[in-house]
Amino acid sequence: MKIMQNSDTPIYMQIAEQMKTEILEGKLKPGEYLPSIRGLAKELRISVITTMKAYEQLESEGLVTAIQGKGFLVNDQNMGMLKEQHLRKVEEYLQAAIQSARVAGMTEEELEAMLHTLIMLQEQE
Fold first, then answer.
1. What is the maximum alpha-carbon separation in the chain?
2. Nearest-5° angle of CA 122, CA 63, CA 37?
3. Chain centroid, CA 32 distance in Å
């Protein structure tokens, strides 16, 4: 898990979003427990309160359930609903990118080339 300390996105949201992605991608499966709050906090070198806030965010979205004395359990998911949430987020980011490209004076072709390059770089990681 990668946490960006200098990001505008709060750390708890970064954790929640990454775990949501792992659930959507099937890396965290229904019935599986999330890492312990204390363990994850120690691993990421962050506050237990921050980790708890991330888990509570996932719980409020219905992705996990808190089990007394055991931790947080991944729920069965409506994968279509989760995918739709991610598609909406992609759309928002692309709209913001298009707006920024217009401000920068980029052509549609330049923007498409940049997107293609970024996709290729991501595939190489």
1. 56
2. 85
3. 18
Instruction: Please report the beta strands in the chain, taking only residues with DSSP state E, as ranges in sequence order.
Output: 64-67, 71-74
Tell me the pLDDT band of 124, cut-offs 50, 70 and 90.
confident
Phi-psi region of 105 (alpha: psi -120 to 50; beta: other; left: phi over 0): left
> 81 pLDDT exceeds 80?
no
Residue pair 68/26 in contact by the 8 Å Cβ criterion: no
Q: Token pair for residue 116? A: 């293609």
d(Cα 109, Cα 118) in Å, to the nearest integer? 14
C-beta separation of 18 from 1 below 8 A: yes
Residue 49 vs residues 1, 8, 9, 14, 42: alpha-carbon distances, Å: 17, 19, 16, 14, 12
pTM of the model: 0.66
